[in-house]
């Protein structure tokens, strides 16, 4: 069935360093890939997304890359700050369906 | 910024009891969803709802679950006879367009933590 794998499960970086989280999806028909940030006690919040017709997208310190051939997509956070500490989820969706398939999440800790 | 509102934030119920989780989606959104997250695990799709009917549901969404949009603003998830394994955080979400065609992604609420004892 459809599956999204996410690595690593936990990631600690020093403030100012970069963080990279990687996801792999199984359904080749997937065409929309959002990333969500979940802070303690809150719901997931969309931080960036990418469609399958684009290879890379940037929004200030956050970027997402997509390799359709390999079915990989990655989140890159540069110049990390303590407030970036949270759980990050990747997801994949397919036109014609209504659901997102989420990855297992990455707990990012930014050490001051 | 528009929000998805969920109530209550925490619900404790006895096994076998019925619970109703409530959500107020963003007013101009047409697609509504319920997801759940068992502690420490991934967010799992339960059901999507569009045009007053279920558009898609997962294997988790069995006969014990039902959804309803009783008026123009609320969207509810009912669990008829709760089991211990129903304990989880339940998230409501809404979107302007469906799933993979989303322009802006889902907006999630803050969740209802359901504890079945």
What do you see in this structure?
The complex is a heterodimer of chains A (112) and B (117). By secondary structure, chain A is mostly beta strands. Chain A has no helices and 11 strands. Chain A has strands spanning 4-7, 10-14, 19-25, 32-38, 45-51, 56-59, 62-67, 72-77, 86-92, 101-102, 106-111. In chain A, the strands form 2 sheets. In chain A, strands 2, 4, 5, 9, 10 and 11 form a 6-stranded mixed sheet that branches. Chain A has a 5-stranded antiparallel sheet with strand order 1-3-8-7-6, with no helix packed on it. With 117 residues, chain B is mostly beta strands. Chain B is 0% helix and 49% strand. Chain B has strands at 5-7, 10-13, 19-24, 31-37, 43-50, 53-57, 65-68, 75-79, 88-95, 107-108, 112-116. In chain B, the strands form 2 sheets. In chain B, strands 2, 4, 5, 6, 9, 10 and 11 form a 7-stranded mixed sheet that branches. Chain B has a 4-stranded antiparallel sheet with strand order 1-3-8-7, with no helix packed on it. The interface between A and B is medium-sized, with 26 and 29 residues.
Task: Give short descriptive properties of this protein.
A: 112 residues; six-stranded mixed β-sheet; B: seven-stranded mixed β-sheet; four-stranded antiparallel β-sheet
Architecture blueprint of SSEs:
The complex is a heterodimer of chains A (112) and B (117).
Chain A: E1 4-7, E2 10-14, E3 19-25, E4 32-38, E5 45-51, E6 56-59, E7 62-67, E8 72-77, E9 86-92, E10 101-102, E11 106-111
Chain B: E1 5-7, E2 10-13, E3 19-24, E4 31-37, E5 43-50, E6 53-57, E7 65-68, E8 75-79, E9 88-95, E10 107-108, E11 112-116
Parallel strand pairs in B: 2-11
Antiparallel strand pairs in B: 1-3, 3-8, 4-5, 4-9, 5-6, 7-8, 9-10, 9-11
């Amino acid at each position: 069935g459809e599956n999204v794998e996410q690595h690593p499960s936990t990631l600690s970086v020093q403030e100012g360093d970069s963080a990279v989280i990687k996801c792999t999806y199984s359904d080749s028909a997937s065409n929309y890939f959002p990333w969500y940030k979940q802070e303690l006690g809150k719901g997931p919040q969309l931080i960036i997304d990418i469609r399958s017709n684009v290879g890379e997208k940037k929004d200030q310190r956050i970027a997402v890359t997509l390799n359709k051939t390999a079915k990989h997509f990655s989140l890159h956070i540069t110049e990390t700050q303590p407030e970036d500490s949270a759980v990050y989820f990747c997801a994949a969706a397919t036109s014609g369906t209504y659901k997102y398939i989420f990855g297992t999440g990455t707990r990012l800790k930014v050490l001051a | 910024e528009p929000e998805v509102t969920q109530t209550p934030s925490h619900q404790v119920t006895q096994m076998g009891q019925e619970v109703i989780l409530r959500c107020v989606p963003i007013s101009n959104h047409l697609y509504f969803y319920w997801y759940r997250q068992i502690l420490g695990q991934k967010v799992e799709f339960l059901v999507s709802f569009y045009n007053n009917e279920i558009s898609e549901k997962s294997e988790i969404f069995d006969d014990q679950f039902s959804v309803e949009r009783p008026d123009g603003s609320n969207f509810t998830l009912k669990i008829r006879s709760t089991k211990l394994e129903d304990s989880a955080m339940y998230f409501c979400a809404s979107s302007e367009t469906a799933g993979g065609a989303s322009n802006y992604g889902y907006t999630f609420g803050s969740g209802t933590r359901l504890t079945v004892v």
